[in-house]
Design brief:
Layout (H helix, E strand, L loop, with lengths): L2 H21 L4 H11 L7 H12 L3 H17 L3 H25 L21 H15 L7 H17 L5 H24 L11
């Protein structure tokens, strides 16, 4: 087993165990004060609320779907169609998995601050954090430009942070989601590596 697959599996396992810990109430001491520290209020500057909503919307389903389609087309255009399949399967399995996990844990969303975004009833793990992380990080791991990983990580983490700031997720929800998505991204990259698939260039030349 490659190091990336092993590390990815460890991260996914950590996310699963974190879910059991939060449902047992072991991390309330962390969630409540951090939530109070991060969450925006009605008195927060309007520009900050608007900027946070904008960041969180980058992690919505529609923008993520467009990005996934773009990466698949790019990989195919670079004659890396098998990498496109690995990428699509990785993203799909990760998103289906965290969706099922959310139902299995059944954690309620926080009610400690006003919500500045629409959200459903279930909270752990954060779909925005998990989905953005796997979509962005897995894409960069299949590219030849390693510098792309840092902007991808930064954007994924910013989207994750926006969720407790908007009052719709506990901090541990986004931590669990982020490590879940990162784990699957590493697993996907490890599978591509094990298959000997070449990495594509974002820009030719």
């Amino acid at each position: 087993m490659s190091r990336r697959i092993a590390t990815g599996a460890a991260l996914v396992t950590a996310a699963v165990l974190l879910g059991f810990a939060v449902m047992a109430g072991w991390l309330t001491w962390f969630d409540v004060p951090v939530m109070h520290a991060l969450a925006l209020t009605e008195a927060s500057p309007r520009w900050l609320i608007a900027a946070t909503v904008f960041v969180t919307e980058l992690g919505d389903v529609d923008p993520r779907s467009v990005f996934v389609m773009f990466i698949c087309i790019l990989l195919i255009a670079r004659h890396c169609w098998r990498s496109a399949v690995v990428y699509l399967v990785t993203v799909s399995v990760s998103i289906m998995g965290h969706t099922w996990a959310k139902v299995a844990y059944g954690r309620e969303r926080p009610r400690l601050s006003p919500w500045f975004d629409q959200a459903g009833d279930l909270s752990f793990p954060s779909g925005h954090a998990a989905g953005s992380m796997v979509v962005l990080l897995a894409a960069t791991l299949l590219m030849r430009e390693p510098w792309l990983r840092w902007p991808a990580l930064g954007l994924a983490l910013a989207i994750a942070l926006s969720r407790p700031m908007l009052g719709v997720h506990w901090p541990t929800d986004v931590i669990g989601g982020a490590i879940w998505g990162a784990g699957f991204a590493l697993i996907g990259a490890g599978v591509a590596e094990a298959m000997g698939l070449p990495k594509a260039r974002m820009l030719e030349g």
